[in-house]
Each structure stands twice: as structure tokens, then as C-alpha cells.
Amino acid sequence: MPATPTAPVILGDEPGSFPHSVLAERHPAIVRQVRDAFPYDPTRHRALDALLANCADGAVEPLAATAHDRDLWSAWGLGAHTGRSWYDIPWLWSESYFYRRLLDAVGYFGPGPWQGIDPFRPCKLAELDAPETGEELAALDGLADLPAAEQARALLHGSLWGNRADLGFRLSGGGAAAEPVPALVADDSDALWSLLPSDGAGTLCLIADNAGRELVPDLLLVAHLLERGRVGRAVLHVKPYPYYVSDATTADVVDALTRLVRAEGRAAGYGSLLWSAMADGTLTVRAHPFSAGPLPYADLPADLRAELATAALTVVKGDLNYRRLVGDRRWPATTPFADVTAHFPSPVAALRTLKSDVVTGLTPATEAALDAAEGPRWRTGGTHALIQVRP
Ligand SMILES: O=P(O)(O)OC[C@H]1O[C@](O)(CO)[C@@H](O)[C@@H]1O
């Protein structure tokens, strides 16, 4: 094994593959869904129709000369990818740029009346209002009598499996099937807990993924760790603008906290704790532009790298963040997780349900058992999860 392992970057160019289906089917479906979700004006309809025609069969188009982030995207490779098929460039790049273009089409960056209107907000709010969310919050009261370690474990698993509730995933109609065996394909949770300094003064960074039913348990986990003095400070990294359908933005954090403080019982207590923690700076929300960028975390910009380097532990949530953490490549599944995350500036834990082909750190026996039981389906079905840690 070389010191810096490598593997082919995933493209979307193989018909029948999962990445290809996302570009060819999921993206057009998302454009249609967004077009139906708001009473957009004719200009917005024309822009959405143009994106619909372009995204499945066309070539990558540049941003407008006036776009506020044109330089940023140029630095991220826009020039090199312009004019090429969406299928022939790194899949991670194509997907990220698709969401950037979608926001253009709905007028998100303005100027105009649709500036700042999140096209995915109705779905996100519906999740927060769903009866399941209320049930999950009520279940929190039942944890109170458990030993501390079991409470922490339950909240960690709530955050982990919260990643299954992802709206983009649901749009494709590929919802979670029967309970998987084994559900957890890797479990380094003991190592995760051991990374929190015993003096309770460490900083936890949590790179969030989805809003709604994933962000709520993420926040509960953070609240629990702050309340119990397991961490002294927490930093929640969210997206600077709507992305991958349900990814959390600052507005979604506000919605989730509002949902918590209006709940009953322990959930409300955690909500108040977090509200105060934000007011006194114990909990900080960050929305760095790179968080919605199309590059892997190996390419972290210097300021974000320096910031994350101060964390006792960074928890990286979800499938997309996993792809960005280990690199969106065709790794052999047994590639050591520590090798592919050696670039990351702090100790790091990945909490993710498996929703794309990328995976590392499995034992040969686990990979063989999964293949034998399910064929390739275990990689993308969202029915399996992992907790992987690199100290
Ligand atoms: O919300 P998550 O867990 O990041 O999952 C989003 C997922 O959506 C996809 O990008 C497909 O659109 C997955 O492959 C992916 O990584």
C-alpha cells in the first residue's frame, strides 16, 4: 500500500451505474419538483426548462459574468469543465455544479423577488412537522433513566441513522428497504468517545449534512455532549446556500432549534440549552463557501483547514461528506480509512449511511458477506451505515 493511496475518480459516464442514474434521472426529477413547488414567474420557468434540457444531455455552461462567485468556481475548475458533458467530468463536480445552476434558475442569488428563497424549504419544513419527528423527540424522555454511556450511544445512533432521512434520496423512490444485516458495516464508536478529552474542554466540529430529521438528532447529540461536559465548545458547519436538496443551511438550523424549543420534555430542554449556547458562543454555526464546493476535503482551503485543526474531533456526517472526506474514487472497499483520511487536519469520525458506491475501511469478510447477501445493492440502498474513526 503506497503512503498516499489512489484510485480512479468516479465519473457519471457509465450507463446503468448509480452516478449515471443520478445525472440522467434524479437531476431532471429535482428540477421538475422544484418547478412545481413554487408559483414561479415565466422567467424562472424558462430558466428551469433550460436547465432541464441542459442537465441530462447537454454540456456544462459557464456562470454569468456577473455571478458573485464566478472567481470561486473558476478556482474550483469551472474553466476546465465548461463545454464538457456533465457525464465526463468528476461526478462530485457535476452534482455540486448542478445545484449551483439550479439556484441560478430559481433566482436564489438575485437580484429579484426570489432572492434567498430556498427551493427545498417546503420539503424541509414538512420533515420537521412530520409526526415521526414528534415521536423521535418524545422518545428522548425515555432515555433519561439509562446509564450515561447508553444515552450517549443512543444519541450517536440517532444522529447516524438520521442520515437515512435524506430528501434527495427519497425523491428517487429508493427508500430504505428491510432492516439490513449487519446494519453497521464498521463501528469505531469506542474510538470516537475516546477522542473527547477527559477535561471536557475540547472543541467538537460537526460537519452537518441534511436538515430536518437528520439535523435534529445531530443537534441533540451536540446538546447532550455540551450538557454532560464531554465537550467545551461545538462548531456546526452548514452549507452557505441550499444544496443537494436537503442539506442544512443556517436557516434550517434556526428552524430545527425552533422546533426543539417548542417541543415538550427533554427535547425542549436541549433546545433551550442550544439556544443559549449560540448566544454565548459555546455553539457556533459556520457556513464556509467550501462547504458547498465541488472538491474533496483533501483540497480544504487554508482558513478552513486551520479552523478544523483546532478541533479535538470533527464528526463528518452523511454520504456526500464521506465522499468528500475519503475522495470520490473507486476505492477497493478494504482500503484503510486512516490512509485516505490522513490529509484531514483533526481527528475525524465519519457517520454515514451508505448511499453511493464509495466505501473504505471494510474487512474482507464484511465486504464478502454483503456482496453475497445483496450483490452491489448494499452500497447505495441506505440500509447500511458506518462509524469510522481516524484518531
Ligand atoms: O445526504 P447525503 O447522505 O449526503 O446523501 C446524498 C447523496 O445523494 C447522492 O449524491 C446522489 O445524489 C448520493 O450519492 C449522495 O452522496
Description:
This protein is of the alpha/beta class and 391 residues long. The protein has two domains: 18-105, no CATH class; 121-390, Uncharacterised protein PF01937, DUF89, domain 3 (Rossmann fold, 3-Layer(aba) Sandwich). The chain has 17 helices and seven strands. It has helices spanning 18-37, 42-57, 70-75, 78-81, 91-105, 121-129, 131-139, 148-162, 167-171, 189-194, 215-227, 250-261, 265-280, 302-309, 318-326, 337-340, 364-374, and strands spanning 184-187, 203-207, 233-237, 283-286, 313-317, 348-353, 385-390. It has a seven-stranded mixed β-sheet, with helices on both faces. Helix 11 links the parallel strand 2 (203-207) and strand 3. Helix 1 packs parallel to helix 5 (91-105) and helix 8 (148-162) packs antiparallel against helix 11. The radius of gyration is 20 Å and the shape is globular. The two termini are 20 Å apart. The relative contact order is 0.14. The model is unreliable at 166-180 (pLDDT under 50). Residues 22, 26, 95, 163, 166, 168-169, 209-210, 244, 318-320, 323, 355-356 line the site of 6-O-phosphono-beta-D-fructofuranose.
- The CATH homology group name of the largest domain: Uncharacterised protein PF01937, DUF89, domain 3
How much of the sequence lies in strands comes to: 5-15%
Q: Can you tell me the number of structural domains?
A: 2
Describe the largest sheet: 7 strands, mixed
CATH topology of the largest domain, what is it called? Rossmann fold
- CATH architecture label of the largest domain: 3-Layer(aba) Sandwich
N to C succession of SSEs: HHHHHHHHHEHEHEHHEHEHHEHE
- Decide which structural class fits the backbone: alpha/beta
**CATH class assignment of the largest domain:** Alpha Beta
Helix content: 40-55%
Q: What's the overall average pLDDT, rounded? A: 94
Task: Give a list of the ligands.
Answer: 6-O-phosphono-beta-D-fructofuranose
Q: How far is it from the N-terminal to the C-terminal residue, by CA?
A: 20 Å
What characteristic shape results from the CA principal axes?
globular
The tally of beta strands, per DSSP, is 7
Q: Which stretches are poorly predicted, pLDDT < 50 over at least 5 residues? A: 166-180
